[in-house]
Amino acid sequence: MAPTILIAEGNETLRTDMEETFQKHGFETWAVENGLDALKATTSLKPDAIVIDLDLRKLGGLDLCRELRQSHHLWIPIILISRKIDEIDAVLGLELGADDYIVKPLRLKILVARVKSIIRRGNLCCYDTNENQGDRNGSSQKLLRNGDLTLDPTHFSVYKDNEEVIDFTRKEFELVYFLMKNKGKAFSRKHLLKVLSGNDSELDERIIDVFISRVRQKIEPHKRNPVYIKTVRNVGYMMKEMPVLTKGMQQSR
Q: Which helix (H) or strand (E) holds 81?
């Protein structure tokens, strides 16, 4: 069955070019010119992926992303496209649940490759390919623990001292999940950016510093002297391995 994609782009020429390119690569396409039509089409058609221009009329790209993720709870892969790299827009887009951020002018074959890659990942950031297929079919994964932190991959929840950290965004969760799965290992900003937005990201690696800062504000007992996420000079960041506290959450919640 052919994968389906919704293209939300205000420029008619570019919209047509994207449609034709995706069709040549085996996609079934739907195309709209404004954000409200994109919202209606997405909620009714449930495509495999969506390409959204940030500068849509009636409902902008970031607002559309927010509506899909927070109001309609749809986790269809989203690729945002923009005329320029804007660090604030990029961070907001990723925090709202976008899977990638691509800058115009578009290289359409590369866009298709990025979309295919994101669809393959299935937007399931927290399932390891080495784990058994049962995890993908809905069975609970093991809780991750480090110090007084507990992470629940099945429900996308983070707990500190048994209290849920309510305001974790999707991308913050992905970052903490990766670091906790690999605690004790240091990773470069480039590597962490790849974890959040896939290969060949055009985003500035310093965006990782923004995410790290926000995560630290939520999990660190002392903001100026972090004990969990450590800065590794000339490398990047790592999750320090901490002794698990006995009062931590039990596997069966």
A: strand 78-82
Question: For 211-237, what is each residue's pLDDT tens digit?
Answer: 899 899 889 988 788 999 999 999 999
Domain at 139-239, CATH from 3.30.750.24, 3.30.499.10, 2.40.128.110, 1.10.10.10: 1.10.10.10
Structure tokens, 237: 């960041």
Q: Which residues have C-beta within 8 Å of that of residue 50, sequence separation ≥ 6? A: 5, 6, 7, 8, 38, 42, 68, 76, 77, 78, 79
Report residue 47 as tokens: 């495509």
24-72 residue pLDDT tens: 999 999 999 999 999 999 999 999 999 999 999 999 999 999 899 878 8
* Orientation angle between helical segments 170-181 and 189-197, nearest 10 degrees: 130
pTM of structure? 0.68
**Rg of the chain over all Cα atoms, to the nearest angstrom:** 19
Structural class in CATH, domain 4-121: alpha beta
